[in-house]
Specification:
Layout (H helix, E strand, L loop, with lengths): L2 H6 L7 E7 L7 E8 L19 E2 L5 H4 L7 E6 L2 E9 L5 E7 L7 E13 L6 E12 L13 E2 L1 E2 L2 H9 L2 H4 L12 E2 L13
Parallel strand pairs: 2-8, 3-8
Antiparallel strand pairs: 1-2, 4-7, 5-6, 6-11, 7-8, 7-10, 8-9
Length: 203
């Protein structure tokens, strides 16, 4: 993925990012679309608020809030070459938590977050008003040994194998949900220069 494409598809609120999902057409296996980051927030967290920027990191998939989007029609693959977390053990030049970048290797091959998506009407930004848009989030899980020293709370659920893609997009939820687990420790690397990764996929 080129630097230009990384800048275009950096995961930021209100910016479109690419998704891939199983097609309903008999002639096409998958479709590639763009959507906005942030699934609907649980109503209890929106009390007294006028906007809903959405939830991107989805951990507790057993919550009734997420049940409606567990079917294959709402599952997607979110392309990524790297992701970042704020480090609990390193600081930047301003004394704040340093942004630490991770990838499958230093050449940053393509992989995918296990995502869900929907079409939703809400007020995401006050200045924008009510909009209807395709939106997405992705599953998170326990941090592996590579991520944990920097960010012990969680890491994205990352899919790397074609068999995993097929299961996530087409299998019953009872099988697909088993993919919500940390990547093997030897399958992930810390990138050596976090600043150089500022245009890549960020959480």
């Amino acid at each position: 993925m080129s630097y230009r494409l990384r800048r275009l598809f950096a995961f930021k609120h209100h910016r479109l990012a690419p998704l891939s999902f199983a097609s309903s057409s008999v002639h096409v296996d998958r479709e590639l679309v763009t959507a906005r980051r942030g699934m609907p927030t649980q109503p209890k967290f929106l009390e007294g608020k006028k906007t809903d920027p959405g939830v991107t990191n989805i951990r507790n998939v057993s919550s009734p809030h997420w049940w409606r989007w567990q079917g294959v029609e709402n599952r997607c693959l979110v392309p990524m070459t790297s992701f970042s977390e704020y480090s609990d053990i390193e600081s930047n030049e301003k004394g704040r938590k340093a942004l630490k970048w991770f990838a499958l290797s230093d050449i940053q091959p393509l992989a995918f977050f296990a995502g869900i998506w929907t079409n939703w009407t809400s007020v995401r930004k006050a200045k924008e008003g009510e909009v209807t848009a395709d939106i997405f989030g992705f599953l998170t899980t326990d941090a592996n040994a590579v991520v944990r020293p920097h960010h012990a709370k969680a890491m994205p659920a990352i899919l790397t194998e074609p068999e995993q893609f097929e299961v996530w997009l087409k299998a019953p939820w009872s099988e697909a949900k088993e993919l919500q687990g940390p990547l093997a420790d030897d399958a992930l690397a810390v990138l050596p220069s976090p600043g150089a990764q500022s245009a890549a996929t960020a959480l």
